[in-house]
Fold this protein.
Amino acid sequence: MTQKAFQDFYPDNLAHCYGCGRLNEQGYQIKSYWDGDESVCHFQPREYHTAIPGYVYGGMIASLIDCHGTGTAAAAMYRAEHRAMATEPAFRFVTASLHVDYLKPTPINTLLELRATMKEIKGRKVIVEATVSANGIVCARGQVVAVQMPESFVK
Amino acid sequence: MTQKAFQDFYPDNLAHCYGCGRLNEQGYQIKSYWDGDESVCHFQPREYHTAIPGYVYGGMIASLIDCHGTGTAAAAMYRAEHRAMATEPAFRFVTASLHVDYLKPTPINTLLELRATMKEIKGRKVIVEATVSANGIVCARGQVVAVQMPESFVK
């Protein structure tokens, strides 16, 4: 895909997250894109990201929802301000709270699809709801309360 | 420590979780123990488990709470049945839901301490509440609703 992902717009000094930082060589480097009013992210777990054999461990599902959620929050904030993602100042969100409901075991040998929608923007806070699907079946649902990163976080 | 951890009692075929399976060579292999009525787990993140430089990424905190939570659920169920952990049948829990509140950035160059308590046992369900601390400061709080693994999960 030649389209740039949400995470490709993170400033270099905020692009080292294990889940979503393009500069973290050991990390997942997830990529999120708009698909209409939904954001979408595809991810292929490795064989060792297992819970019980054949299924993805819950922490990875939480990680994917978290990072896809904060990415979606940033992208939604640009949209709310009618700004292109390449424009300054850059938005970067951290997670205030994360909730995940595990509905079904998530198969590991399948490309996972995350879809998310922005439910609410209130000041510096964005609430995002997400699903994780495998083979078209929703295996987990999550909610991320994301908050625009305080300037004091940035070294 | 020569004491066996909760996870050391997981049956071999259920000991491959990336977060807590002793047989997952790539995984975190967390170890949880009783400390009175609380369970405790110490974990040292790697340098690349970063969110923004200097801090732990949220997905790892969620993973630790999740796996320490399911381990605590199993251990609590043995206690509720007045059984030693080495006795059969073995308890192994999966996560129905996970909630994490991120209170403060969690420093990465510090041994993290998780503490958890069992809040409720109801049939096959156990609710566990947990904290993640660094240098004595609580950085995150979580709740795990754990359910005894259905026999159909086990291959």
In short: The two ends of chain B are 32 Å apart (CA to CA). Residues 6-153 of chain B form a domain with the Thiol Ester Dehydrase; Chain A fold (CATH 3.10.129.10). The beta strands of chain B are 32-35, 38-43, 93-102, 112-122, 125-134, 137-148. Chain B has one helix and six strands.
